[in-house]
Amino acid sequence: MKNNLLLDTMRIQTESYKSHRMETFIKKKVKTMGLDYTTDKYGNIYVAKGDADLYPTMVCHIDTVHTINNNVQLVKIDDKLLAIDRTNCQRYGIGGDDKVGVYITLSLLQYYDNFKAVFFKDEEVGCKGSSQADFSFFSDSNVVLECDRRGIGDFVTSISGIKLSDDIFQESISSILTKYNRKCCAGGITDVGEIAEKTNVQVANMSCGYYDPHSDNEYIVVSEVEATKQMCIEIFDKVNQDGLRYEINGNRISYTPAVYGGFGYGRGYDYYDDFYYGEDVGTSQSTVDVNRQPVGTCKLDTICPNCGAHEVWYEEYDDVCFCMSCQTSVEIDYDDFIVDEKHMETIPIDDLYEVEDKIIDTVNQEFNGNCWYDDNDNKLKKL
Ligand SMILES: [Zn+2]
Ligand SMILES: [Zn+2]
Predict the structure, then answer these.
(1) Which domains does the chain have, with CATH numbers?
(2) Separation CA 120–CA 142 (nearest Å)
(3) Residue 349 confidence (pLDDT) above 50
(4) In angstroms, what is the span from residue 103 Cα to ligand 1's centroid?
(5) How many CB atoms lie within 10 A of CB 90?
(6) What is the pLDDT of residue 366?
(7) How far apart are CA 75 and CA 94, in angstroms?
(8) Which band of pLDDT confidence, cut at 50, 70 and 90, is reported for residue 108?
């Protein structure tokens, strides 16, 4: 295999909070290109190349979920690259999430005369690096791309209800997306989501040819990595040609049912695990199994101040409330209203020491002991 940069990048062992090897690798590569880098107080690495009014910009994360393992060996099978632990010959996650992103970012930094790149630390433990970024770095970016998604078909245009890009940008690159067979969709948390929250520049995340991330079986498909790199070049070329900075003006919040699991006919998007279930769904999905509890969310026992529907849900990860009926975010203190069972302890009858004996008798007679104590309204309820 001739692509040494890809192999070199995939060989580096890196882990959340232990990414020093990857940091050194990136800093050396940047120096080899004759460029300088800066770091912020968290240790994220920034590179600005050339002299332009606007810069195509790419970001990636340099940690992986896999524990550093010095016995890992890369194995190439046809178009696939995977890793095994040579001591026990077991598969080991190759860390394409997000070393593929690192590889594409380094490649494009080399390719373009004018380019900006950021290598973020500790994405896998809650976007720790990118949430503390120097966001002024993106003030002259024309658009910010990230390659940090499994598979090959997705172009992510919203993350947990935050709009990453608008119709004008998506329209401008639609023939490229069609050529590379990408569909616009909602996606999981990653660094460009942080940039979208803190700046007005348009951003995107996309599939980049890694599979089974966060597992020992993780592998990459080399031709898909290369196709994604090529697609990024075409997108940046188009944006450079458009000659403007793509910004989101106005409200960036744009909740779609997809983010929350959606409603409908057994199809939808699982926000926490970042995958689609049921049939293929795009940005306009209004579909999901009604019987399925949305992941990482709970229903609140209150009505929506906007539409009056009893459909207000709290989303733990982003700490926001949202009405499923009118599809708007709602300002409510969730602590006052949580009624979802998973936030209630089921207390065995014997432990109900605070409850009067006569209540316990009633419980035993009426419910055969199958009840739980709801300390919100101080009542026993049937299981
Ligand atoms: Zn990732
Ligand atoms: Zn990941």
Answers:
(1) 4-242 (3.40.630.10), 256-352 (no CATH)
(2) 19
(3) no
(4) 13
(5) 10
(6) 53
(7) 10
(8) very high
